[in-house]
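S.,

Sequence below, as promised.
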Amino acid sequence: MHFNRFLLLLFLLPLSAFSQVTISGKVTTSISHVGIGKVTVFLSNSSYGTETSEDGAFTLVGVKPGQYDLVASSVGYQDYSQTILVGKEPFNITIPLMPKVNQLRGVVITTSANWKKNWEEFKKAFIGTSENAKNCVVVNPHVVSMVSSGRKHTLEAWSNDFLVVDNKSLGYRVKFLIDTFSNNGLTGIISWQGKAVFQELPGSAEQKKVWKLKREETYYGSSRDFYKSLYTGRLTQEGFIIKKLHRELNPERPQEGLILQKIKQFKEHYNRDSLNYWIIRENMSKYYHESLGKEPLQPYQIFGKTDKPGLFIISFTECLYVIYTKRHEETDFKDLYRPLDMENFETSVLTLSAPYAVFDMNGVVFNGAPLNEGTWSKSKLAELLPYDYTPGQER
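The prediction came back faster than expected:
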């Protein structure tokens, strides 16, 4: 009887419990191949990270299947990064680090007032303004270098060390190495590249229960939830409806750069009539002739498998309109089309910049990531969860 119960328990356990992998290896110098101690080795955007021993050895245990960037970082050496696809088998790797050659960026001269202004813009665009963001504490803001261009309406930023953020809403310390960051005021597009590692914040049992619920709330309805539901065939069960969106640029709305230029010009000259004219133009929708497909799209119409196990593609024409029916939207997006007879559900619009995008079994997009508008555009660092996070399966 006890044996039969044990077999039943094994049968009911999630498959991921049997497919966690160990990654081990050694970090050495690229010239003498001598092991290097105290090197930070981690899978970017995950909670898997460690530090090498004195001889350069490291081990990452319990890694869930998926695609990751394996990163090694140490003072005095160039960062190492390699994309790996974790399957069922453990593997061993030798990581050679090359001595760092200092590359000087342009000298940025700024006042404390300008730095504060740039920092507030950066923090809003990178960390966000949500309830989660309000509970984020930046430990070392001055590791971030920033340069602003008033003429181009852009803010660029980078860091030579990890920006450390304690997310007290989700219970993580996030260490983010910013390679590039850009906030384009003309297009409204925010983009960045970098590497991150997550660490659990210490907390009481009661606090951890609160974090668990908040993580689940953040995950459900997210882009990761959508992509995972797409490949598992559970879109309807998880509350997603997808349709094709047709739209055209509004020819009556001038280009964003011209609008901003005119508003600035007439503000400085206190010309109220002209200023109001251009503010009206700014408030006009970017699009017109918008319409949704009558019937929801089926997964097979936009989804496909690749020749690599665990990697999938999404492909569509025009725009993809994603409705999440389990939560209502609280933000009014000026340029987001919403039919008058549609309930105010969370809605995101996806536009591909390439023929297709590639994502893995964790719902993480790696190549050709779509431009997100609407609900998903609000997700910043404050909503970032480790790639290995799965509701109900936290380590």
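The CA atoms of residues 15 and 228 lie 15 Å apart.

Coffee later?
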